[in-house]
Amino acid sequence: MANIQLRNVTKSYGAAHVIKGVDLDIRRGEFMVFVGPSGCGKSTLLRLISGLETITSGDLLFDGQRVNNVLPSKRGIAMVFQSYALYPHMTVYDNMAFGMKLAGSSRAEQDARVRKAARMLQIEHLLDRLPKQLSGGQRQRVAIGRAITRDPRVFLFDEPLSNLDAALRVATRLEIAKLHHEMSDVTMIYVTHDQVEAMTLADRICVLRDGRVEQVGTPTELYERPGNIFVAGFIGSPKMNFLRGRFAAEHACHTLGVRSEHIDVVAEGEGPWTGRVVHTEDLGSDNYLFVDLGAEEPVIVRQPGKVAIHEGAVVTLRPKAGMLHRFDEDGLPVQRPLAAE
Amino acid sequence: MTTTATGAAAYAPDRGETGLQEQRARAAFWFLAPMLLMLFFVAAWPLLRSIWFSFTDTTLNNLYGGEWAGFQNYLTWRELPSGRIRWGGTLADPAWWNAVYNTVRFAVISVGLETLFGLLIALMLNAEFKGRGIVRAAILIPWAIPTIVSARMWGWMLNDQFGIINHMLLSVGLIDSPIAWTARADTAMIAVIVVDVWKTTPFMALLILAGLQMIPRDMYESARIDGIHPVRVFFRVTLPLLKPAIMVAVIFRLLDALRIFDLIYVLTPNSSATKTMSIVARENMIDFNRFAYGSAQSTLLFAIIFLFVTLYIWLGRVDLTGEGRR
Fold it and tell me: What is the pLDDT of residues B19-74, one digit of tens each?
């Protein structure tokens, strides 16, 4: 329900500059994911938006109004914390009603809102329990439910899945995606260090590094047209292969990037690269070959299904035409076309 | 697959595992043994011995010559020729009951004040400010000073002739003439409580501070986003979460306060307004050469402390589960 705009926002703790001038537009009803390696400032940025931290300089606008000095509770936000932040001495019901109760809303309204949120998240049967009687996934749902009862304009998630095990993480990810569809007019901002979460949940992703925005775009844009070598390496699993030296020189660039699924294994003589398979990883659905081409690191090649190529085999590789990413010395994409193409 | 499965079954690690369990239990026992041995010699043995003494007629000059005397040290009665019954023993001794009253009054008031001040100081120390480390260390100083030293120090400060406290109160006009704080019956207990509070509040503050730091920060942040007033957060979130820490701190202090001896022995010797159970027991055992009688009082002191602590834990537990079910 709110457009959020950041105008040259910075945050410093004494001499440490954590956020170094961020400009960002988050649209109404959008699911925006902040992603980046640890220490990139993504959580700090979220906390600046929530008002839990004060902005050092720059402007934060909600629907065009400057909210830099507005109390967190007056911003119309709700936040889901990584550690859930449930009150251990209160039941699920009380946890969800706590904010409303002290805000002085009527008992009937409290009850209606708590029950509605509980129904959305299928935690109605847990309302009388204490947090310690719940599993991690249930606690996270309660935390989300508590945020829903606030009826926020903006929903903030601070790494909500990182305390869950892998299977629960996938299930809860689906829940959050569903929630986004059901509350389509609520703006959601989600912080994660996991690029898979970012790719699967986001309408748009904001990649951060070292307190700066590296690139903002839809998951597809980021995947297909990374704005620089950092984004190229950060988005996608396994990591994009980077080749320098003669491999890059052939394509008139400093670093050549190619994703593992964009390399084919071909018959001898039909591809430009030849190397020995030094390691294989069989994931059932896919097979990853680690091929030593004589570059700095082995090149990872993704082969769908079962492939009868074993360690020690010598293979010839051919990158798919048009799927190469070329970067210059500064890590920026090379714009001019290849002479050969 | 089948072969490996049966292979594993044939390995039957059952016996091996119990063996390991036994080994662990044995190792644990040997680690505990020195402690158990020490506890026996410094706690259990003296305790049992003094309980034994309390049922004999032992005197200080003949520690091993005491003979069984039953409950004589606790309660005796004799019918006088006039028909009146004359009671004897500790339980009929007004000095003893005065000591019980003094001890309980002292313990309740001083521990109450220490908890209150300790909580306030802990809340202050939990806030972020410059020089917090130094303040935390400084606040420990009263606790670090040996009781005898601080009792002497306060004794001088409270002195009626030369004491700085009288001097200060006189110069601001709060009192007209110097007060002999430690000697007067109506102020002696106040003096003792003030010194004890001064001395042990830091201990309370640190224990509560440890509890405060266990409360996750995002609990408060969540409350901030909900816009809950800090005072309400304190009573609805902080205090309930701090309760276990406070309970433990209070029980430590209560145990200490109920057997208070050194402070009173130095600060207000021989004042019946402050004589506690420990003081009276020692007096009988050593000064009056009524060793068995003093032992009976020590035993009663132990029983009273035991009762207090049991009651406290029991009531505390009931309260806790009551809260848990809201």
Answer: 888 999 999 999 999 999 999 999 999 999 999 999 998 888 888 888 888 888 99
How far is it, in rounded angstroms, from Cα A307 to Cα B62?
Answer: 96
- Give the nearest chain A residue to B320 (CA atoms): A89
ipTM: 0.82
Helix (H, G, I), strand (E, B) or coil at B203: helix
Place of tokens 């550690």: A83
Provide the edge-to-edge strand list for the sheet that holds A325-327.
Answer: A241-243, A255-258, A325-327
Q: Does residue B10 sit within a domain? A: no
Helix (H) or strand (E) holding A255: strand A255-258
Cβ–Cβ below 8 Å for A79 and B221: yes
- CA dist., res. B42 & res. A248, Å (int): 79
Alpha-carbon distance A85 to A111, whole Å? 21
Taking CA–CA distances from A133, the nearest residue in chain B reads B324
Instruction: Tell me which residue of A258, A237, A238, A236 sits closest to A247, measured CA to CA.
Output: A258
- Phi and psi torsions of A156, nearest 5°: -115, 130
Total domains, chain B: 1
Q: What is the DSSP letter of A204?
A: E
Q: pLDDT for B267-292, tens place per residue?
A: 998 888 999 999 999 999 999 988 99
Chain A residues with CB under 8 Å of B236 CB are 98, 102
Just give the CATH number of A241-327: 2.40.50.140
Assign residue B167 the CATH number of its domain: 1.10.3720.10
B218:A103 CB<8 A? no
Residue A266 forms beta bridges with which residues?
A316
d(CA A164, CA A170) in angstroms, rounded, equals: 9
Report the distance separating Cα A301 and Cα A299, nearest Å: 6
- Assign B322 to helix, strand or coil: helix
Domain range annotation of chain A:
4-234, 241-327
Question: Is A129 touching B (CB cutoff 8 A)?
Answer: no
Residues in chain A with pLDDT values less than 50: 339-341
Residue of B214, B215, B226 best to disrupt the A interface, most CBs of A under 10 A: B226
Domain that holds residue B148: 100-324
CATH class for the region spanning A4-234:
alpha beta
Inter-chain touch A88–B241, beta carbons under 8 Å: yes
Look at residue B30 and tell me if it is in a domain: no
Q: Does A162 touch chain B (CB under 8 A)?
A: no
CA distances from A262 to A258, A321, B272 (A): 7, 9, 94
Residue B195 within any structural domain of the chain: yes
Residue of B nearest to A89 (CA): B324
Q: Cite the DSSP H helix spans in A69-162.
A: 92-103, 107-121, 136-149
Rg (CA), chain A: 24
